[in-house]
Amino acid sequence: MWQAIRRWFDPRELRSVGSTPDYRFSLANERTFLAWLRTGLALVAGGLAAAQFLPPLPLRHLREVIAVALLLLGGAVAVRAVDHWARTERAIRLGEELPVSRFPAVLALAVGLGALLLVAAVLARAVGGGR
Question: Which segments cross the bilayer (predicted)?
Answer without folding.
Answer: 33-53, 65-82, 103-127
